[in-house]
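Sanity check

After download, print the first record. It should look like this:
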Amino acid sequence: LKLPHYVDFQAELGLVRRMRAEYEARENEDKAAEEKREAAE
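Expected structure tokens:
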């Protein structure tokens, strides 16, 4: 079975987007935690 290359590309794009979304969510959590610490001081 040989899939058209764009099917594979779409799957990769979805994976990259999910990884980026997870990374940005973690970054935002880190920033929020830092702001809370600074506010607490």
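If your output differs, re-run the checksum step. Summary of this record's structure: The chain is about 90% helix and 0% strand.
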